[in-house]
Amino acid sequence: MWWRANQQFANSVILSVVLGRSSDMNDPTLAELFDTAQAFLRNLNPGANLVDMFHWLASLPKWIQWWRPYGLAQYEKTKKVYLRELDTLRKKMDDGTANPCFAVDYIQAKGDIDANDHETVFVFGTLMEAGSDTSRVAIGQGIAAAAIYGDWVKKAREELDAVCGDAERLPEFRDRDRLPYLSAVTKEILRWRPFIQSGMARELIQDDEYEGYKFPAGTVFTWNPWAIALNPKEYEDPLTFKPERFLDEHLRSPLKGHWSFGAGRRVCSGYNIGDMNVWIATARLLYCFDFEQIPGTPIDTFNTIWESHTEPAFPINIKPRSQKHVLLIDRMCTEIAHS
């Protein structure tokens, strides 16, 4: 059930940031949030909706627009889930039990923001969708790389053990300056197999010109992070997981060296959260567990979309490094349960 724990971690972080609550994998409302996120990801696939590629189709009479019933149904379902979350949060705000979070600040500042409830909940929903599956998939890619390429895992553990001792304590954010190799590992996870393989499309709102080429308003642009990440002209031996490539002066700059957080002015606004999520999860997983491929069932590293929330992304053996690490995990779980 490692993949379920992965989901819960990624979603708890973004839910606490946006809505001030943690996630419970047995929570039916969370399952509905997963469903809306999965539908969103499916619709991001190139060619999933022809109207996004051929805008003139939107000029057809509505009764001919074959994609409209599906789109409207998905919109209503998503809106219902988000509005329910907003209602729950407002009740907590009224009785003084709401935790500090982005949504509370947004609602309190709404007098300065021109947005109705429907627009408001889609602001929250966009942040949740952008911050949950991305971290989940990236952490999964790190686990896959740990099972396939053992050399870098050994180096990372030597660094972790030097800082945290022999199962004495878990790595923490305050250790990051003393764990430079782990920061390089984080960047290589994001570079090795981009989780958004075809980029995010952008549309010009006005005519533009670039290097002598003229583009009218309405032109759709995207970039190809997959091709860039696996281009031998950009990275030596790009198919192999090599954190050493990022041990340079840009090590602590999350946006340098890969394209997983986007490009240009439209780079992901939550990149710091994503970077910290992947770093802390990877550090603690490597410190506590061994990862091995299952004989006869190698991990397919070129199938890294891993959209499913109901089954593991790939077969893998995971076991604690030692009994000392088991006791450490038990101790930390007990402390958290009573905190």
Automatic annotation (TrEMBL):
<dbReference type="GO" id="GO:0005506">
    <property type="term" value="F:iron ion binding"/>
</dbReference>
<protein>
    <recommendedName>
        <fullName>Cytochrome P450</fullName>
    </recommendedName>
</protein>
<keyword id="KW-0349">Heme</keyword>
<dbReference type="GO" id="GO:0004497">
    <property type="term" value="F:monooxygenase activity"/>
</dbReference>
<dbReference type="GO" id="GO:0016705">
    <property type="term" value="F:oxidoreductase activity, acting on paired donors, with incorporation or reduction of molecular oxygen"/>
</dbReference>
<feature type="binding site" description="axial binding residue">
    <location>
        <position position="268"/>
    </location>
    <ligand>
        <name>heme</name>
    </ligand>
</feature>
<keyword id="KW-0560">Oxidoreductase</keyword>
<dbReference type="InterPro" id="IPR002401">
    <property type="entry name" value="Cyt_P450_E_grp-I"/>
</dbReference>
<dbReference type="InterPro" id="IPR036396">
    <property type="entry name" value="Cyt_P450_sf"/>
</dbReference>
<dbReference type="Pfam" id="PF00067">
    <property type="entry name" value="p450"/>
</dbReference>
<dbReference type="InterPro" id="IPR001128">
    <property type="entry name" value="Cyt_P450"/>
</dbReference>
<dbReference type="InterPro" id="IPR050364">
    <property type="entry name" value="Cytochrome_P450_fung"/>
</dbReference>
<keyword id="KW-0479">Metal-binding</keyword>
<comment type="similarity">
    <text>Belongs to the cytochrome P450 family.</text>
</comment>
<keyword id="KW-0408">Iron</keyword>
<dbReference type="GO" id="GO:0020037">
    <property type="term" value="F:heme binding"/>
</dbReference>
